[in-house]
Amino acid sequence: MTTNVTVNAHCAEDTEVYVEIYDKETGIMIETDYLQNKDTKVYYVYDNRFIRIGEIKKNEI
Q1: What is the pTM of this model?
Q2: Pairwise pLDDT comparison (42 vs 58), residue with the higher score
Q3: Span 40-57, pLDDT tens digits
Q4: How many other CB atoms are found less than 10 A from the CB of residue 55?
Q5: Which of 6, 7, 18, 46 could form a disulfide with 2 if both were Cys (CB 3.0 to 4.6 A apart)?
Q6: Using CB atoms within 10 A of its CB, is residue 6 exposed (0-12), middle (13-18) or buried (19+)?
Q7: Three-class SS string for 1-61?
Q8: Quick one: which of 21, 25, 11 has its CA closest to 55?
């Protein structure tokens, strides 16, 4: 089974949305991505994966 997660970034110009996909069994990050305001992207979560999404100031990366 696969879950499609669509992320629509709506944030201030000094902020970006981070997306991290992890392997649930190992805890290892498989993918990381950063979206700017008005960006949209679809992520696929399947098997033993989970997704973590949040906002961060651009200068904190």
Answers
A1: 0.86
A2: 42
A3: 999 999 999 999 999 999
A4: 13
A5: 46
A6: exposed
A7: CEEEEEEECCCCCCEEEEEEEEECCCCCEEEEEEECCCCEEEEEEECCEEEEEEEEEHHHC
A8: 11
